[in-house]
Specification:
heterodimer; A: 595 residues; eight-stranded antiparallel sheet; 13 helices; globular; B: alpha/beta; Arc Repressor Mutant, subunit A; nine-stranded mixed sheet; 17 strands
Chain lengths: 595, 363
Amino acid sequence: MKNIRNFSIIAHIDHGKSTLADRLLEFTGTLTEREMTEQVLDSMDLERERGITIKAHAVRLIYRAKDGKQYILNLIDTPGHVDFSYEVSRSLASCEGALLVVDATQGVEAQTLANAYLAIENDLELIPVINKIDLPQAEPERVKEQIEEVVGLDCSDAIEASAKTGQGTEEILEAIVRKIPPPQGSPERPLKALIFDSWFDNYRGVVALVRLFDGRVAPGQRILVMSTGKEYEVSEVGVFTPRMLKTESLQAGEVGYIIAGIKNVRDTKVGDTITDAENPASEPCHGYKEVKPMVFCGFYPVETADYEDLKDALEKLRLNDSSFSFEQESSSALGFGFRCGFLGLLHMEIIKERIEREFGINIITTAPTVVYRVTDEKGEVHLIDNPTKMPKRPLSIEEPFVKASIFVPQEFIGNVLSLCQEKRGIQKEFNYISKDRILVVYELPLSEILWDFYDRLKSLTRGYASLDYEFIGYRPSDLVKLDILLNGEAVDALSIIVHRDNAYYRGREVTERLRKVIPRQLFEVAIQAAIGSKVIARETVKPLRKDVLAKCYGGDVTRKRKLLEKQKEGKKRMKQLGRIEVPQEAFLTVLGVKE
Amino acid sequence: MSGIYIHIPFCIRKCHYCDFYSIPIEEELKDHFLSSLKKEISLYAGYKEEIETIYFGGGTPSLLSASEIDRILQCLIKHFRISENPEITLEANPGRLDGRVAREYLKAGINRLSIGVQSLSDNELRTLGRIHDSQQASQAIACVMEHFENFSVDIIYGIPGQSVNSLKKTLCIIKDHEVPHVSAYELTIEEHTVMAEMIRKGFLQQQTEEEKVKLYWTVVEELKDYTHYEVSNYSKEGFQCRHNMGYWLRREYLGFGPSAHGLAGDKRYRNLPDIERYINALDEGIRPVEDYQSLSERQKREERVFLGLRTNEGIGIEDYDFNRDTLKALRDEGLLLIENGRLRLTDRGMLLSNRVIAELLWS
């Protein structure tokens, strides 16, 4: 066990994590040069897209160090998006150390900092690596200073490296061996394995990726998943080389996979503990929490006939993703569909795209919403994940808040401050982390981040700002339900919950956008925004005046037929709301992306 | 009951807005065409339906002399069963129409003339690229009136530069002449025409939708003493075009000549559009058909709806299973009428017929 090192790489997007991982694989001969395809970890992620997303992965590297001993280095990859921060924390909890990779030309970014803090919380040994040192604009000294100042990490022996040229690779491997402590724990104690990822394989069932803290596990053994109390018999264990390689057993300190006839990824949630059924551990690995979806929206088939197919697709996706939830719901506007829960917007987009791309089902997405905590007239508290379920006269409404850390070059700070202001943010910190870079921390309603925060942050700072956020709790807000009415009928799928101060603005904006996307029809369409019975904005789509083919000359009806076929196709892409035909993009319109 | 359409593909020159098949007239080619046409007609000998209507369209059929028309009619009589009282129409260009010509056509057997007046404003005629002027057109109408009881005048509205007033003036002259039938077509700018090019280059400005709507209502209003019996057709009692009604009622018709269309049995067909290929096919003794299309029951049903609803006879409501709510909504909007078990479009409904029909068929 003293020859094992478990580590992760913490880096901001584009700071070179994947390339560095490739160099480590190459240097240790884990893959021969012929086998090396660019960015192995990423390409495996892509391959796994059939399975799921941008989650963690693990590779075992064998390294003979300068001290002459052979070491097993387990590289545990972490997902790279803020939606998956709990998964990141569990991956980090499976390690004793991490490389903190920072681009020598860019400096520390929000995500790097957030993940570095996560690593520190998990008592990880951090090894600073200054990457892209080969670039002419590299400023290693400045970046080291920044790391010391912001992260509070001693950078006196930070490694200067270039994942591109391979410079520093050996130094990194040596540092891993020397600085990161070997795993503790004992193979003799009862089995205690932390699940840090799992996915569903069509042929083998659930594959759980684990880090063993105590004990051992081998085929034939009966295991217990501690939070569910369910028992299974292990059929296979092994490690990733990076291909799956069957082994006789896994023991304390090691990282590998367990297959045990588990049918559902829900039964192997990230953060849960696997132990021996006959001789269980006295307590699970600490830090397990049920990840709850933060963002909800409705998915509806464009064609009602696709309902069953959509259900199948959602079930298949859920097989592989325990943080995604769905249940049936119906909308008077859109018919039967599903209310789906996600970790965040990116997560939502991934699932939506997979339904359309892999399953070929056209869907309408309703406006995403957070979960509101609403106290009704009788004093009962409801968790509301759909604006239509909002009680008529709520006593109070609370909404989730996040703490958002934003790193931004000084020249754009004004833009960022006014954006945060507009988004109802409360400034908490304002620090210069270097001459020209600022870290601002805001408390913001999560719902405000959902709309268009990230896109606007990027465009207001020409892509230079970085953002990370974490949930900090519920707070009361003056919120109202904004209904959209088409010819006097409220369209439930278009309702949104907004802050009272923004209601007029949003009402005007949404009705105006709808006027632009709803085509002229045979009759006038009135678009209204209303709070309760009070109309606050109105737009009109004037009726179509003329649509006729003047001539069917000489009995040539082909032109007329073609025209009719075109109309039929056009109609198919529309959703019929009563007498009104509404194009799919109308439902996206209320998402409120600024033009 | 059936009709025959004969496409005469020759023109003196092409009008600026026209995208029908036509070529400059040449004596030799014309003779070759006429003999091919006779061959084509003979290939359909034995066609069982009685022929009720014959229509010479084009191109410019009045480029054929009365005796040439006569020979074609003789050929038709030889090969088909013609009804006792057929309607035989010839489209005529006002530039070449005088009393003598009109009389000769009448003698040859033509009993209905359709005069391509288009407009009685010289400016508009120039914009359209017509070869005649307004004076010739008025004279042509006067000559035709002397010899023909049944005739029609074509006009076009929505011409770049056309005002409501100038359209009214055209229509008033037509009414003064007591023309028994008027076809009023909205100008459609077709791609690859001279007019499309002139608009693209900014020499002409297209009428806006709003203006076209106004012009449509001007036609409806000015011709209120006529029956608006089809989207673009207006007639006095007893002067509907029987041939064109055949199209809307989905009666069979044979089409002869290059690019002519036909409907026989379950099939629609289209002739080769090119005169040389047309002639070659007939030289080899085969029908010059480019394309046949068999129609499914669904397609036939859709055709009956979209063609029938162009006319004021409309369609029998019991024959179709339309959505009741849709019917009600369209009626409430004043787009259609349901009377005596028949469904038909109002004047407003005709202006929106593409949409109304789509609603009926697919909602």
